[in-house]
Write the structure tokens for this entry.
Amino acid sequence: MSETETIAAISTPPGEGGIGIIRISGDQALAVGAKILRQRSGNPVTTWPERKVRLGYVVTAEDDPIDEVIYFYFKKNRSYTGEDVLEIQGHGGYQNLKRILSTILQAGARAAEPGEFTQRAFLNGRLDLAQAEAVIDLIRSRTDLAQRIALNQLRGSLSGVIKEQEDKLLALLVPVEGALDFPEDEIPDLERSKAQKELQAIRSNVANLLAGAERGIILRDAATVVIAGRPNVGKSSLLNQLLGEERAIVTPIPGTTRDFVSEIIDLEGVPIRLVDTAGVRASVDPVEKAGVEKAYRLMAEADLILVIFDAATPLTTEDRELITFLAEKQPIIVLNKTDLPVKLPTSFFQTALPGAKIRSISALTGEGIPALKAEIRQAIMGTGGSEEQPVLVTRIRHQEALKEALGLLDLVAQGLEEQLSEDLLAVNLRAALEALGRITGRSVSDEIIKEIFSQFCIGK
Amino acid sequence: MQQNYEVAVIGAGHAGCEAANATAKMGFKTLLLTINFNNIAFMPCNPSIGGPGKGTLVREVDALGGLIGRNTDRCHLQMRALNTQKGPAVQALRAQADKQFYQQSMQNYLEVQPLITIRQGEVIALEQLTDHWRLTLSTGIRYEVGAVVIATGTFLRGQVHIGSLKFPSGPQGQHPAIAFGENLEAQGVKFKRFKTGTPARVRKRSLNFNAMVEQPGDRLDHGFSFWLPWEQREPVSCWLTYTNQKTHELIRKNLHLAPMYCGAITGTGTRYCPAIENKVVNFPQRERHQVFIEPEGLTTDEMYVAGLSSSLPEEIQDQFLRTVPGLEAVEIVRPGYAIEYDVIGPEQLLTSLQIRGWLGVFCAGQINGTSGYEEAAAQGIIAGINAGLYLRGETPFVLQRNEAYIGVLIDDLVTKENDEPYRIMTSRAEFRLSLRQDNADLRLTDYGHRFNLLSAEEYDRFQKKRENITKKMAFLADHHLSPGSAEAQRLQDKTGIKIQQKTSLKQLLRKPEMKTAELWALFAPEQGSPLEDEVVENQIKYEGYLDREAKMAARLAKMEEKKLPDDIDYNLVPNLSSEAREKLKRFQPETLGQAGRISGISPADLSTLLIWITRGKRDE
Ligand SMILES: Cc1cc2nc3c(=O)[nH]c(=O)nc-3n(C[C@H](O)[C@H](O)[C@H](O)COP(=O)(O)OP(=O)(O)OC[C@H]3O[C@@H](n4cnc5c(N)ncnc54)[C@H](O)[C@@H]3O)c2cc1C
Ligand SMILES: Nc1nc2c(ncn2[C@@H]2O[C@H](COP(=O)(O)OP(=O)(O)OP(=O)(O)O)[C@@H](O)[C@H]2O)c(=O)[nH]1
Ligand SMILES: [Mg+2]
């Protein structure tokens, strides 16, 4: 059997407790481990006793420690995947795990595709059936979520930018491929200096994307949670509570928030874009009216809506209108101001929006906030633990894809300079396109052929 | 009257000839049927063989022990090396062949084999008996056989169009196979219609070559075949001229008379071999198109007009030909035409080229939706081998995408919905650097030997070559030049390269300007053999790329090993996306890897499938 590629992924769902697990699987697992792990003494790790807990550090290529970790080694045929597996447990924060994974990828492993661990385990006959089915269901629900997120991204400017780079690369590649396949068909020769210019433009765009990836990663993949309700129920107060800082203006005057306020929060490892909206009511003030319209639009586009009611006052007509509007949207109902005498029974909502989750809180005292956070997380991520890398890693895969594309574009640039033959230029250009295609889901091989025939008159 | 053979090959075109050669070499008594005995391995179109991708197919068939490479070398009028400046992955030979000689020579290759019987006769029916098949000819003769290869080309319900004139016909006025098409359809084979076309043939003495540019052949030290000793001939030239605005106007004015534009033709045509009508319509901005005038043979005055394929009325063809410089006084020998014919859809073929559900019946060549002699030959040899393996009760021979262009071709045929005749292209191959023409024998000759398609002497020669290559690779890796040594000095005198640190010859060869021959001259004068050196050089210069491809191939291999049983009811597999379910039902892939290449099937669908087939096994 030929050597399999070594893959790595974060194996715990984001924010699950204080510990995060990263697994490396494949023939090179120990080789990768030796590069990134150090003993507590700082010395390189030289022995790998099987299934023994070891304490050590993960270090960067420059030998700077990133995290104190424990690690185990599972030998081929006795591991989850049936291959050599190195398991590293680090501190559970998202940023931290991501850094560890990046180091592992730099040391020669490849980010696993969704389902790849399971696939390997299966191919090596290592997986119990019931377990496997559970895992696959989970991958499904996660990839469905990932797909929903990806779909949002497609509308977003970021993947628009990547698509543009793909189009430009395709435009570069098509005449090269065309001339290779049809040398007798008057396809103009590659003008290397012109191609170099176009390539540099693409390269710098990809490099910019990559530079912004650290921040952009969260922005792109965050699920949107919209806080809605009539004026003065405490929406802005809740935003501030969840953020842990006084971000939005809070006053006793109804109609304080006019335009929406949006912030990224890290909800125990799950990135979320939290949006505070203008209180919903009929208004003649054009500014407030625009704000209310915007609020409705935001609700329509949200991944999840938190609808706030003032538990200390009886239901108003505005409240009722909102309930009707949200009937189909599976919001979480938040009863605020429960520090005051409660005049709104939860039983009302159980009949008005059957099945809806209801949480009582006080945005003033912080009462009920942890439970609400858990509820939000659950609604976004679904339930269950996972053997597979969750959505988070998808983003690292994107970053890795960009990195790979960049490296390949550099090879092309160098090749153009050094008179590298055109078949090799084409191979590298194609590989760069494939790398970007892992982000946009686009497969270009048929497009190349189609473009050759539509741009050049082939056929002697 | 009834006779028995072990294999019947229906069709003696480029696919059928290879199939019959393979089954006979494997030891099976083979009947080869053709509608016209004079037209064995007939080339209905361009008298040209090879080119990027296609030339590699020729080498691959040759490496397996097929005939197309040898026969082309024997019958070539000129040979050119293409893409010599563009890198090893796309370098290719292209030959002009003498058509008549090509047919006679191919006939001879087959006739000298005692196990092959060639017969003229039109098959009109194929029927299944208990464990074998019965063929019926139009004359009433019957044969019973164990396995069948159908390689009927463009003959099945062929319909020729020239302007508004249309009539049932095979290519070039041959008798079409109407009854057989109907017979197969009645038994459940589903056909679609494809279309292809060919230009007029013209009389050499009516042409003015002074108005054209001569295209001489190259002088080369090898041809296609790994086995036949190469003989450089005096190359016969082709000639280049161009259309002009007058040509285009004439065509535009008469477009309504073209069967494709007035709706008479419904079959789908090709994008890479378009009629001049299509070129003028699709590329209106082009001021001229190339026209190559190519010899059809040494013993005929006919010339082929490449680039002016047309199904306009003959009169219009005559008019527009005359607008082309050098063709002012042209005399047409035969007009160009378009032909529509039956093609079997991808969902009915297995990778062995067997028709799904028809045990022992294989299809090869244009009937499978391809176009081209090379593509036909490639499928022919595989269909032949698999017919033989079927008779032996062994598992079919399937080449993978990383092993051969043949693998790419057949895998594409069974997993892709083609809406036009399929032609191989280097851009279809994801393992382009591994699938070169120079290493086709290293990739495939062991298989050819296993199936007995090569003589013992040929295989010995191959093993010797392989050993030499290994030795040369080792020598280059082990031989080092040290700074200041006499050898380093010799290198510097000769090439100007100064050795700064201990360097192996292998490292030296990685320099783009460095050639193997140069190293031999300097350091190992007894070495040599350009064909071996070509492999050595490519293997070393492109090592990094080849490693990358090898990694990718290893990743695919496991998926390829996972077989999908052919009785999966995809309706019962939970959790598949509806698109995946529909595609899987239609294409019924044979392996998980193949399933993954069908468009619309995601990794999650694949995992679901994987679990499903595993569960199936446990339930049993
Ligand atoms: C008009 C035309 C234009 C073409 N243009 C091009 C081109 O530009 N470029 C290109 O690459 N390719 C072109 N081709 C395609 C190329 O000629 C074919 O791909 C190639 O010849 C196919 O080989 P084959 O073995 O599948 O079929 P063929 O070579 O067509 O051979 C079919 C064989 O089957 C026999 N046969 C058929 N039916 C029966 C029957 N019922 N009983 C017994 N025998 C039967 C015939 O006698 C014949 O021997 C063209 C073909 C035609 C007809
Ligand atoms: N007692 C009590 N008061 C609260 C609570 N939450 C918010 N308030 C008060 O309610 C008032 C309105 O709070 P905001 O957060 O501005 O309400 P809002 O829904 O954003 O209002 P608009 O932006 O005007 O629509 C402020 O005076 C808050 O101090 C709570 O849980 N308990
Ligand atoms: Mg507010």
Q: What stands out?
A: The longest strand of chain B covers residues 2-10.
